[in-house]
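Record 1 of the preview.
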Amino acid sequence: MKPLFGEGVIKTQTKSHLWRKTVIFAIIAGMLLFSFIGALFQPSVAWADEAAEDADAEQADSEATEATDAASNSGTGDNFLGLQVKSALLMEAYTGQVLYYYAAPEAKNGWEPASMVKMMTEYLVLDAIKEGKLSWDTVVTITERQDSIRGSGQLLAAGHKYTIKDLFNHMSIYSANDAAVALAENVAGSEEKFVEMMNQKAREFGLSEHAHFSNATGLPNDYYGEYAPNTSGQNWFTAKDAAIIAQRLLIDHPEILEFSSKPQEYRREGDPNTELMLNWNRMLESWIPLNNLYSKLYAYEGLDGLKTGHTNTAGYNFTGTAVRDGLRLISVVMGAENEDMRFGETRKLLDYGFNNFEKRTVIPAKTEMEQLPKVSIKRGKKTEVPLVTQNGLELVMKKDETLEDLVITAAPVDEELLTAPIKQGDVLGTLTVEYDNGVEPVQYTVNLIAAEDVEESGWFTLLLRAIGNFFRSIWNSIVNIF
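->
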């Protein structure tokens, strides 16, 4: 019997069937190869919809920056405490958070600080001692120029010798202008060069654009008479500038409190045959054991510094610092009408701070955070690695606020860094914490680090993983169709 179809037709069908198999095999092989290459080089995907999170984080960063800029450039603060001063500010000493701010229109860009200028003089002298350029026992001879300086102090005489420590006592306790000039000239060679150092340090501290130093004392230059330093402008800075200088003193040179906390000291330390100098800071807690008028009128629990200032044009200024229950505050008042007012308004500021704020650990160290608990890793024996915080974070918050008042976001590092091998402790992400206390918004970052090692995987494991990913994606596509 003859076949239903001719032999030529059967051969054609066989060839066509073989061709289809070849094409299908080639497609599958190509897809496997593409999937394998993708597994080796594809961008890593973190444990969340990170593309959306990155976009949101960038927008949040932009909005936070705009808010911070607006806060620093607009308005003069809400004087809800009713302080009778030209300017006032309350800051937590170690986080730098501003808890209260007010400036009258005429003081928005700064005010004459008077002897609060000496905080910068103190800083530079303490720097010179730390660097070994001076020592506390260094003996200096008072010059005619130093002897001639007017205002507070005037206990030094030309030709007499004093140690650096004695001069520092004069300046920090008795606000002595002559001692400030003597210290400045021994640090820099001249007061003019010392003023250059002061203004350079102001830029390093990031003080306001209007901040300026014209001498080491805080006096107007014309008070120097024939010995006026050859410098320009006048001493000038804001209440926040004063707080920043005080903060840097407390952090970089905590020994300042050994001097500023003394209620009194002899002209030559420990020598009762010399004049007794009384500290112009009447709020020191250390007045209390002396049971004098200051202890009854002004002394404040925990207050141990820092610097008063007064001239006829500046009014009465004061940068204070006090600590209670581990919370150290820095207060600044500028332009008060009298001594009672500068200490009374300072008391209002500090009472407000201690009564309404507390320091909290808002981010514990070595802790997994739900915002980014892990990230995916390329080329690793493990495909993911858990993350923990590198360090903790403390914030000062109002006592009636909760952690829900914080905005916490997270983002992984750049994709190329998410590739094995990974060592425990490698920084693989950042956590951003934003907090707005209604005065000045703050933003902090905490590194997220790998909680364990991830070794690099071999090529065969990567091949098997690529094949598995390929078929998993096909299966998911089929499931999605139905």
